[in-house]
Specification:
The chain has 557 residues and is mainly α. Among the domains are: 173 residues; 164 residues, no CATH class. Helices cover 70% and strands 1% of the residues. Strands 1-2 form a two-stranded antiparallel sheet. Helix 2 packs across helix 26. Keywords: Membrane, Transmembrane, Transmembrane helix. InterPro entries: ST7 (IPR007311). It is found in: Membrane. It is a multi-pass membrane protein.
């Protein structure tokens, strides 16, 4: 144990040996302190000598500069669809900070043939028949009775009338009275007039044919009654079964006579369409009544019997039924056949493929864990499939995530439009909910698609550019009470809004300073004094801690 005298001597010798170090330290501290005092004194002198004209000039110059930046940002946004400041940040600053360039080349796993084929395609707003359209009498009309709203637009119903005339009539119908009645019935606008015409055709045919003998016009009359008069699915199924008996007989007779002339060929084509339509709607009735396996068998037999009638898109009905049975292996087999570059894509194809890939990883997916360890190969495939689906139809995720309310799907849809998104989500939302974690994975990843495509109106990543005519067609197809989803919806970037706010604020300050110079000068001095208050507080604390004699000693050193 050393004595206090020894400790004192050791301390003095240590300080004497390091006198240059401490001299330098105190000199630096003194320099900083004096510079702070000088800055504070200079600022106070500067504030006292400022005139109101200076504040007017300052705010006016700031307003002018921010206005010029706003004009440039707005011009750049109108031309390129993004903010210039954001573009520079993403292109130049993000790589320096270790980010990944979102505009990198497309996925190497994507086939070049598909990408090249899609880029060469020209997008057209062609309206398609909804493969999963509901029954007017048993479903659409019941919605109208309950809510008082019309779920179908006149444009949509007019397209259906054109389809019925194309599929269910031919040029020789005027030769038979009942066929002529049905030809007029499909053109009637009033539903009650169509139903009355169908009953009239049935009564006329019963007077010409003995009981249990059905004519071709009987088949189309039963179709109309099943679609529009039947108030339940069971009643519609009963009428479709009667139509099936008539349709099969007509199909067999016209099949034997189809090569005897163009008139018989047209009749056979019409009878084929009638038979396919009846069998397809019967399969949909079985699906709605819970006999899903029976519906799957009917759809498979129909696709095997008429493989060339791909325009009806029966495979989409089959996919939905297989998903209901949770038969994912058969779903994958159907996708492998129809998810081809030569066939037109659909939301059902793209999002079902994404659901199958998400199913393999969604139950264990965690955004926090993925950000720490990175995405595995299976997770990357699932995310890429979701990005592919969202790029094809960007309206679907909001309906699947229930960020937007669903309505009854229309009878016609627009590929890549809001109408197709409604039709898909209406029938497939339950399948996404059944797969644990699938909606969570979709929620975490779907917005990344928009970062991959900087400006979708002019560019595409996996498909041809998004068509700009979808909004007009969707507004015609969807009812007035539904808010149509628009994509890509130009939303002003943050920097444009910030610059506009800054420009307006500084212009207002310049105007107020010009009108009330003395008052604004007081406010400006108060603001600047408040801004420098922390520095003054620190200086006061330093002066209170250090004794006044120390300043004299430090200056001598």
């Amino acid at each position: 144990m050393k004595s206090p005298e020894a400790i004192f001597l050791i301390t003095c010798s240590f300080l004497w040996s390091h006198k240059r170090l401490y001299t330098t330290f105190f000199t630096c501290a003194l320099t900083l302190t004096l510079s702070s005092v000088c800055v504070s004194f200079a600022v106070s002198m500067f504030l006292n000598t400022l005139t109101p004209k200076f504040y007017v000039a300052l705010t006016g110059t700031s307003s002018l500069i921010s206005g010029l930046i706003l004009i440039f940002e707005w011009w750049y946004f109108r031309k390129y669809g993004t903010s210039f400041i954001e573009q520079v940040s993403v292109s130049h600053l993000r790589p320096l900070l270790g980010g990944v360039d979102s505009s990198s080349p497309s996925n190497p796993n994507t086939s070049n043939g598909e990408a090249d084929s899609n880029r060469q395609s020209v997008s057209e707003c062609k309206v398609w028949r909804n493969p999963l359209n509901l029954f007017r009498g048993a479903e659409y009309n019941r919605y109208t009775w309950v809510t008082g709203r019309e779920p179908l637009t006149y444009y949509d119903m007019n397209l259906s009338a054109q389809d019925h005339q194309t599929f269910f009539t031919c040029d020789s119908d005027h030769l038979r009275p009942a066929d002529a009645i049905m030809q007029k019935a499909w053109r009637e606008r009033n539903p009650q007039a169509r139903i009355s015409a169908a009953h009239e055709a049935l009564e006329l045919e019963e007077s010409f044919y003995p009981p249990r003998i059905y004519s071709c016009s009987c088949a189309t009359a039963y179709i109309l009654l099943a679609e529009e008069e039947a108030t339940t699915i069971m009643e519609a199924e009963r009428l479709f079964k009667q139509a099936l008996k008539a349709g099969e007989g007509c199909y067999r007779r016209s099949q034997q006579l189809q090569h005897h002339g163009t008139q018989y060929e047209a009749q056979h084509r019409r009878d084929t369409n009638v038979l396919v339509y009846i069998k397809r709607r019967l399969a949909m009735c079985s699906r709605k009544l819970g006999r899903t396996r029976e519906a799957v068998k009917m759809m498979r037999d129909l696709m095997k019997e008429f493989p060339l009638l791909s325009m009806f898109n029966i495979h989409e009905n089959l996919l939905e039924s297989l998903l209901e049975l949770q038969n994912y292996a058969d779903v994958q087999a159907v996708l492998a056949k129809y998810d081809d570059i030569s066939l037109p894509k659909s939301a059902t194809i793209c999002y079902t493929a994404a659901l199958l890939k998400a199913r393999a990883v969604s139950d264990k997916f965690s955004p926090e864990a993925a950000s720490r360890r990175g995405l595995s190969t299976a997770e990357m495939n699932a995310v890429e499939a979701i990005h592919r689906a969202v790029e094809f139809n960007p309206h679907v995720p909001k309906y699947l995530l229930e960020m937007k309310s669903l309505i009854l799907p229309p009878e016609h849809i627009l590929k890549r439009g809001d109408s197709e998104a409604i039709a898909y989500a209406f029938f497939h939302l339950q399948h996404w909910k059944r797969v644990e974690g699938a909606l969570n994975l979709l929620h975490c990843t779907w917005e990344g698609t928009f970062r991959m495509i900087p400006y979708p109106l002019e560019k595409g990543h996996l498909f041809y550019p998004y068509p700009i005519c979808t909004e007009t067609a969707d507004r015609e197809l969807l009812p007035m009470f539904h808010e149509v989803s628009v994509y890509p919806k130009k939303e002003l970037p943050f920097f444009i809004l910030f610059t506009a706010g800054l420009c307006s604020f500084t212009a207002m300050l310049a105007l107020l300073t010009h009108q009330f110079p003395e008052l604004m000068g007081v406010f400006a001095k108060a603001f600047l004094s408040t801004l420098f208050a922390p520095l003054n507080f620190i200086m006061e604390k330093v002066e209170s801690i250090l004794p006044s004699s120390l300043w004299h000693q430090l200056t001598r050193i």
